[in-house]
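This protein record is not my work; I was only asked to verify it. The record follows directly below this note.
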Amino acid sequence: MTVRMAPALAAAGITAITMMSSPVAADNLVSHKAVYHLLPGPISGQVPYDGVEGLVTRSVERTCDGWIVAEHMVMHILTRVGGVIDREIRFTSWEAADGTRYRFAATIKSKAGDEDIRLNGRLEVAREGAGGEAVYAEPDDKKVIIPEDTYLPVGQVRKLLAAARGGEKQVRFNVFDGTEDNGPQLMSSVITGRFKAGEGKGLQTAWGPLGTGPGWRVSSAYFETTGTQPQSTPSFQFTMELLDNGVPRRMEMDLGGFVVIQALKEIHPLPEPNCG
């Protein structure tokens, strides 16, 4: 999901997916642009980090045959020895409206280890959620097997909201956006409760209906799936306020003793396409 989901959030060897997302009303998705703060949450254990700050800008825009998602993340990780780890991520994707075709590109840069990763690829499947093979142009000749029951960024949000509206308390499916090191991950989500319009942390009336509506509280865990079975310990976990319109208003991502909060700062609708 996107929510990813978003979409990736990564720093010094720890990775979390910020869900790519689209406002959803039934199956009618609404284009939007959102800005999020990155803030520190509780820190426990012996992790070498002391805080985080940054911004995420994400747009989700309908085309006549699908959706374009664009995300720019700038993050500064503060270490306990007084250092700063800077990381910048740019991501764009196009996803067919029926979830059968997908193109993606990403750059991940950090001064830590002179990291400069470029990803570019595509995926075609017979139907939404079907298995297939993702083919990368960057890195050269890289191919990733996509198992059955795998969903792309916009499809992830649709599937999770459909489960919540249908009364399901738990839902599991694979997620893929192209930035994962080892292919899709298994996402196991528990819908923990419902909240009303106007409820939630840090609400701002300037957000309007896009950011202040009712929704669901969701707890999710991500598991690597490189072996024959998913790993038993999650790679990371997060809790989220997911609005009925598909906007993940607030996410708290536990990266193993180090919590990063992604909190909505502002959100605006984008114009719909004129498809004739």
